[in-house]
Amino acid sequence: MRPAALTNMPLIDEGLGKVAVEFWNLTWNDEKRHLPYEMRLLLSLTNAVGAGRMRQGTRELVKAYIHGLDSAALDDVFELLAWNQGIGYFSSEIGPSTLFQAYKTIKNMEKQGKERGEICELLKEKFGEKNPDVKVQ
Questions:
Q1: How do residues 1-18 score in pLDDT, each as one tens digit?
Q2: Which residues contact 123 (CB under 8 A, 6 or more apart)?
Q3: What angle do the packed helices 71-85 and 37-50 form, to 10 degrees?
């Protein structure tokens, strides 16, 4: 789930494309970053939700879980989203979103005793690039 949207930048301007890729690499691949990758993904997830970008939030959730984040951390995130965004917003915008569907998939499969690898494969299949609510063109 690479940042496919960055491929649109060179269409606008080659220099902009180069700057966008360099900025992405600095943000996500630079060894000087202090916060663990999973924490950075959660921060990106919550910022995306705050900006109304559920597509990005879903992508960050899937990446965080695939990279080993415990689902208990996701419980905390969704509790904080309900607290900070309000129950009404959570109920009408977050609850029916692809983001929350991915979270529910994780929680339901864990309750069924499914292995993490199986959950990760289903997440990639169901909430990856093939899903029009997640795919970036």
A1: 556 777 888 889 999 989
A2: 62, 65, 66, 102, 105, 106
A3: 30
